[in-house]
Amino acid sequence: MPITYTSGEQIEVYRFSIPVTIGIPLFALFFQAFIPRRLPFFSIFDLPLLVTIFFAMARRNPISGLLTGAAIGLVQDMLGAYPIGIYGIAKTVVGFGASSLGAKLDVENAGARFLVTLAFYLIHQAVYFTVARGMVNLTMNWSWSRGVIGGLANAFLGVGLYFLLDKLKQRA
Amino acid sequence: MESVLGRYRNLTILVGVLFLQVLGLAVQVKRSGDAEHTRLIRIWAVDAITPFERAFVSLQNRADDLWKSYFFLRGVRAENRQLKQQIEEMRLEQVRLSEDAAQARRLQALLGFKEQVIGKPLPAQVIGSSGSDLSRSIYIDKGSNDGVAQDMAVITANGIVGKVLRVYPSTSLVLMINDQSSGVGVLLEKSRLQGVLRGTPTGELSLDRVMSDEQVSPGEVVLSSGGDQIFPKGLPVGMVTHVSPGHDLFLNIKIKPTADLNRLEEVLVVTEQQESQPVADKATRVRAADILAQRLPSVPDKPPATVAGAIASANSGATHAGAPATANLPTNATAKPLAGNAASTANVSPAPTSGTSQNPVNGHAVAGAPATPDTTGSPKNQVSLMPAAQSNLENLTPARPKKSTSAAEAAQPRGSSAQSTPRSPDSEDTPH
Fold first, then answer.
1. Do B49 and A141 touch (CB under 8 A)?
2. Where do the domains of chain A lie, and which CATH numbers do they carry?
3. What 3-state class would DSSP assign to B357?
4. Can you give the pTM of this predicted structure?
5. ipTM
6. Which residues of chain B make contact with A146, given a CB cutoff of 8 A?
7. B275-305, pLDDT tens digit by residue?
8. Does A96 touch chain B (CB under 8 A)?
9. Architecture of domain B55-74+114-276
10. What residues of chain A lie within 8 A of the CB of B36, using their CB?
């Protein structure tokens, strides 16, 4: 799997227009809320997480990545039934990690993206589980099988989605 | 110090952002009973997302209606036939159940029980979800503008769905019963054991707090107990699918919900629950035999000569109003004049669809004229028997000589077949 270490000079940094920056996360949140009612299996996907990872890896800026993750996560929390901040914290960590990784590694190819998405999905679930159980006192049980299946499903979807979103990138 | 912060700028900002969120979370958890402090920012998010969901649902429904109402009509005729048959079967079932319900109400009234009744169910459409498989909640298109309030029960015809968690002006968030933070007071239908229904992280339902020495078998129906003050008692919840010994002396019971929680489209919000003392039903009862009698083919009008003959025959035995139905009644049951003796006949029949009533003038059976209940004794509303019921009555009613029938006794609210019979005080024992 070609994950190559890249020097800072070789890394291309991208930016996005304001409509894309606001519209794509909103679309992701909308579809995540809408589609599972029609297709229940879709709830295994986490479109806001995939969008967070994509923006973080493309911008390669840790601050921008963590703020994007925090914003998307907090809006996702606002739509849910639990206290605001659980998704916010989890996606902040993912945004920071993905952008830091993107600054050091070439994550433009499908194999790297697949592995990065799988890894960050598991990190996201672990942080969510820790916060939900430790702070909010939700009775949650960790399931490796569920985590891995969800990670693989999201990684497959992510690879396809990232290629679509690549069309919206602008070279900085 | 500045150089350290500059060197670890990214990490410092990360810690700062995380700290702020943890702080906000801690404040919310501490004030867990008060959702008002996050209400405004939740409204922003909901207002940004739900209009799109509402528009999509509306568009989808219109397309669906267009397709199903105008194009895809295959099998509609067969389905219609099947549904009609189902209605007939359910009518009979309803009659049987209404007898049981009336009996239960009488007993409850005697014992002074109070019952919870669903007052106003408000139909609502599901427009979205929380969008996470870690929390199970849905958005409906009715909010405070429509009278929805927090903690109202949300149900479907098949079973309970959840409760209203948050209310916005035009939408509401419903926490479903399979969410892990949800809890519903339930009881098992047969054993009447009570427990708490909880959701699991995987979206399944489990019944807690049932001791391991209790007998619970798969297939048993689970109903709401009303103990949570949200769901009215007796609503279907689910069915036991698996029972195994759990930890801490409790059974591990898995429940399958009767409502399909993954494919909800329309739900009902119980906006009003009434608690009332049950009143024994004194209304006229309809029996299964009456329904069956209505379905039997009716006899066409008899020619006047025949009827006159029947009247003559009946009068020769000094019975009553000359209706064919009374021709074979006990000859000395009543001895009253032909006209105006309606009091001796059971003209309070509640069976308006029996299809025959008596002619206002001569008391002959008139096909198709509805027989309206009448307790005044007016002969024009006397009800004749349906042929099948009449023949049954002829076979079953024993002759009771030397007993007269009073109007009050005749006015007992019974089914149409028996109602047309002059009833003696002990005729309640007559089998139907």
1. no
2. 14-171 (1.10.1760)
3. strand
4. 0.63
5. 0.85
6. 202
7. 666 665 555 555 666 666 666 666 555 555 5
8. yes
9. Beta Barrel (2.40)
10. none
